[in-house]
Amino acid sequence: MDRVGVEGEMNFLDLKFFILFMWVLVMTACIFIIFVIAPISKFQIDQNDSLSFLKTSFIQATLAVIIVGILIIILNKFKKAYLLKKLSGKKKS
């Protein structure tokens, strides 16, 4: 009975660390977007050119979408690795 309880706790801890890791990745990406990509517009040389604003906004949006896409790919890979680990552990039991 102790063994089942300990194994159940380990599974729960694995899940907690997996969720914690996912949230750390998401928060890191958010902080990067807010503090690195958003201030790009501060570095415009000609403030009166509306085309310059459009270019800067396009660059910011493109970078943000790329970062979110990379984040989705990374989280999907870790999800698959976590599920494979859990499923292979269940077969051995």
Task: Tell me what the structure shows.
The longest helix is centred in the C-terminal third of the chain and has 43 residues, at 50-92. This protein starts with a helix and ends with a helix. The protein has helices at residues 2-37, 50-92. α1 (2-37) packs antiparallel against α2 (50-92). The protein has one domain (2-92). The model is unreliable at 1-5 (pLDDT under 50). With 93 residues, it is mainly α.
Q: Structurally, how many domains make up the residues?
A: 1
The major pleated sheet works out as: none
Return Rg in Å. 21 Å
Strand content: under 5%
Structural class: mainly alpha
SSE sequence, one letter per element? HH
As a percent range, the share of helical residues equals over 70%
Give the N-to-C terminal Cα separation.
15 Å
Summarize model confidence as the mean pLDDT.
81
Shape: elongated
Number of helical elements: 2
- Strand tally, please? 0
Low-confidence parts, pLDDT < 50 over ≥5 residues?
1-5
Spell out the blueprint of helices and strands.
Blueprint: H1 2-37, H2 50-92
Helix pairs in contact: 1-2
Give me some keywords for this one.
mainly alpha
